Amino acid sequence: MRYEIRVDGRMTETLVKAFPELDHVLMAGQTILFGAVVDEAHLYGLLARCQSLGLRVLEMRQMPS
Amino acid sequence: MAVPGGNGRAPATSHADPRGDPFLRTQFAVPARPVTFLRRDRLAGHLDEALLTPLTVVHGAAGAGKTLLAADWASTRDEPVAWLTAQVAAKGGGTFWAYLLEALRLAGVTTSADAGLPAEAGRADDRLLTRLAAELSTRNTPVILVVDEYDRVTDPEIADQLEFVLRQAGHGMRLVLVTRTEPLLPLHRYRAAGTITEIRNAELAFTPGEAAALLALHGLRLTADDAGALVERTRGWAAGLRLCALAAQGEPDPRTFLKEFEADRTTIADFLLAEVLKRQTAGTQDLLLRVSVLERFCPDLANALTGRTDAERVLTALHGQNAFVEYLGHAWFRLHPLFGEILRAHLRVRSPELEAELHRRAARWLRRSGSLGEALGHAAAADDWETAARAVIGDLALGEVFSGLHCDELSRLFSRMGPEPVSAATDLVRAACALSRCEVARGSSRLRRAAQALAAQAGSADGDPADLAATRLSCAFLETLVARLTGAPGRAERAAQFAEQVRRDVPDALLEAHPELIALLLTHLGSARLWAGRVRAARAALTTVVDSSGTGATEQARRECLGHLALIDYLKGWPGRAERKALATVTAADQGGPPPVSGPGLASLVLAAVAVERDELDRAQALLDVAVDARHPPPDPVTQAGRAIVTGRILLARGDTQAALEAADRAVVADVASPWAEAHTASVAAAAHLAESRPEMAVKLLEDVPGDEPVCLVGAAQAELAAGRPEAAAELLDRMRPQGDLGPAITVRAALVRAQLAGEDGDYAAQCGLVSRALREARRERLRRPFAEAGPWLRALPLGALAEGRLPCGPTRRGSPARTGEQPAPPVVEELSGRERDVLRRLAQMMSTEEIAADLYVSVNTVKTHLKSAYRKLGVNRRHDAVCRARELGLL
Lengths: 65, 892
Description:
The complex is a heterodimer.
Chain A: E1 2-8, H1 13-16, E2 23-27, E3 30-36, H2 40-52, E4 57-63
Antiparallel strand pairs in A: 1-3, 1-4, 2-3
Chain B: H1 41-48, E1 55-59, H2 66-75, E2 81-85, H3 93-106, H4 112-115, H5 126-137, E3 143-148, H6 156-169, E4 173-179, H7 187-193, E5 196-199, H8 201-204, H9 208-217, H10 224-234, H11 238-249, H12 254-263, H13 268-278, H14 282-291, H15 299-306, H16 311-321, E6 325-329, E7 332-335, H17 337-350, H18 354-368, H19 372-381, H20 385-394, H21 407-414, H22 424-436, H23 440-459, H24 465-486, H25 489-503, H26 508-513, H27 515-531, H28 535-547, H29 555-571, H30 575-590, H31 598-613, H32 617-629, H33 637-653, H34 657-665, H35 675-691, H36 695-703, H37 710-722, H38 726-736, H39 744-760, H40 764-781, H41 785-789, H42 792-795, H43 834-844, H44 849-856, H45 860-874, H46 879-888
Parallel strand pairs in B: 1-4, 1-5, 2-3, 3-4
Antiparallel strand pairs in B: 6-7
């Protein structure tokens, strides 16, 4: 499963390191984290990590692999 | 060797959760409001509605200001307020409820005394919750229970239980959940019924006016436009505004900073936190980053991580500024959860190698301060298995790998340990984990390696002597377990002696804290002794454990010991005593105690064996299934042999001789042979051969068993008699005489063989005397199997003529040792007819339906009809009850 998570605001290098398993790309006022997600548990784990870092998730979608 | 703490002290449960750890006081503290806290009346007013509805939920993102809102509101209430931070829910339902009860107790709602405490970390039983709810429901003023960080509760069972208590408590409780995510409760139902107060993220957000007021508390004056822009940028997020205020405070021109912030597109918390952090001194930054690996900390622990001594001053200053640090009371602090996460991300970037070292330091400090559970968590996070293993062994906590409450937790923790590092401590833990899964070969090879390492270490002077003693005692403990599992009594004795020696060097406080280690050691020793047939010595070891006052920790060992003592009684021929002991373990297991391991398996086996003696075969089979169904593989040779014997006896009683032979033939692997196991399996096999009319084979089998085991002598006498050698039979029975302490299960059988001998000699008076005595003895124990086995000669006797010769009363209700006769007997509504009396009288003489029919010159069906109507009139539904009842009423 490949997913992308779109987060409000530009994430700094430091904060991106909290998601070592994902790649990222910075856009105008947004950050997109993307990469392989092992299973649902991992997916919810990522969401919880976003929440505990105070990130606003704008969008989350599965990408065609 | 005595079990420590066995002086009948009351178990110290009131201030400890089921894991045995003391309660973390910080979980009950209502968080203090910072000086810059802004009370917002619209929210406080909305929260006041919480008193009108049973359930209130405050949902919001991290840093939305939920906790402070609830804390501020709670501090203004007149009703009693119980506060719980639900972090502990991660440790299991039992721990969660223990904390919840303690929170209520601290609030002055005295529940824990009446409702009891959960006995295990994993779950809480329903009775406890019912009692709690019932007590709450009688209150005149409701107690306000606030559960903060409810998002930590991920176990749906806890949510179900909480909802149950909430529903049952009615007006006695008002529940306020503070959570980041929607709780797993049927909220839609509460919404439909209008019984919920909800405050959501949007409502928590600051309005421009409130933002201006908040910043004013920090000494910053904002115009309405600026406040509006700031709220738009932060979306009214409390943590964002707070950080913003902190960062702007340090600027010569706060307005420029705010403009910059508004223009920047970095994620808010990250940007602001970095801004606030860089304004701190280098020392403070370092401290903040280092403590980010901890859930909570006191100045001393923080010093241990920084290697400096200024933590108290720095933390107090940070708390005063309202920056990052929250005060939990009792000199403990924590980082705001949101900032803690981000600081940890910063730590990983700045000093990636430091994180493991910090966990290691924390583990060492926590172990010194006596928090084993937390120390283990940090040692594991640092991948420092040596420290983790040393902590478990040094604290003498190795018994907890086996004793129910923590065993899953410890095994799970150590399952992550790889083959490295190799040391005495790590190998002991590896051995314990393997043995707890009954992997004997693996466990004993690790144990051997540990013992070698320990022997090599003994000469050198390094290390703490108390630690060394604890390690040696743990090693001896595992030795006794391996000895028990492999059936090696000599090894068990040597290990126990060694344990007795090293025990003197172990601090008493440790032994008191972990009585289960010695209790389990003695259990293993007793089991190994029993296997070797050293019954008196086995009883001594097992009784020591049973007599020690049962705290929760030793409960499992006590139950196992009772199971073994029950088996001893059964083997000695005392089914009644065996049943009482076995039942004591089973009832204890039903009371929500820790999950049974091999003790209750053994107890069920003994109960099955007793049921066979009473000829209650279906019940015996059901009990055997329970014993075999026990979740662990057959643990030790004692249980394995017991299983083979009981299975064989049930099959014999059912007449399936071939299967009985096979069951008895199942070999038990052990270092030494067990006299009683051999004797009993041989006796089962011999009885099977006898039933197949092969007395010579039976004689041969029993001759091969060494020693004069009574059960073999009786079996051999039966076989000799069947083979037509009454003198040999009499001689065998005479050999039994000198052995004392034999119970009715054996003496009744011996008496019956003698009676049969007397009958063959034509001495009917002696025969009747013997049978009458056997009946009297059997009646007390409700033994019926020996008579069923005895053969047709017995039923031919005119038993009615025997003065006191009565049948043992029939089986009673399942699981109840009380006799049916104790219940008020239903009155006889109709007189029995003459024919019914005739049938009953013959029934009392142990005649079968066919025999009665032949005796009365009527058909079998007619007898059955008479029986049925007699049963109806007597209000019973089986033969023996009918006979007993008829005797009670003086009808016979």
